[in-house]
Design brief:
Blueprint lengths: L1 H9 L5 H6 E4 L3 H10 L1 E6 L5 H12 L3 E9 L2 E5 L3 E5 L2 E8 L11
Antiparallel strand pairs: 1-2, 2-6, 3-6, 4-5
């Protein structure tokens, strides 16, 4: 009982800065497969965030232990709109966070 209380005490309360760091989860077929098979969560994060900030914010917001954080900068892409007009898809930074074994994260709460 004391160990469970100590483990809960280590999780800090989420601040506004934590919610500014983590923008949104990325939901695709590939990320859902990663979540189910390898216990990894993919998130869109702030461009200025580093690994330590992402890990701290993830643990505070979702209340689970993060083991590893990998960061990917997705480049902006040129595209055509209807064949005639040029457009662009903005770039962003994403993070793939590995959740500790034995813990689970439910993104689709009712």
């Amino acid at each position: 009982m004391a160990k469970a209380a100590a483990a809960k005490a280590k999780v800090t309360k989420a601040s506004v800065r934590d919610f500014d760091t983590i923008i949104e989860p990325i939901i695709t077929e590939k990320t859902m497969s990663l979540m189910q098979e390898q216990n990894k969560v993919t998130l869109r994060v702030a461009k200025s965030a580093n690994r330590a900030q992402i890990k701290k914010a993830f643990e505070a917001v979702f209340g689970v232990k993060a083991v590893e954080v990998n960061i990917i900068n997705v480049r902006a892409k040129e595209t055509t709109r209807g064949g005639r007009y040029k457009g662009s898809i903005s770039g962003f930074k994403k993070a793939v966070v590995t959740v500790a074994e034995g813990e689970a994260l439910d993104l689709f709460k009712e």
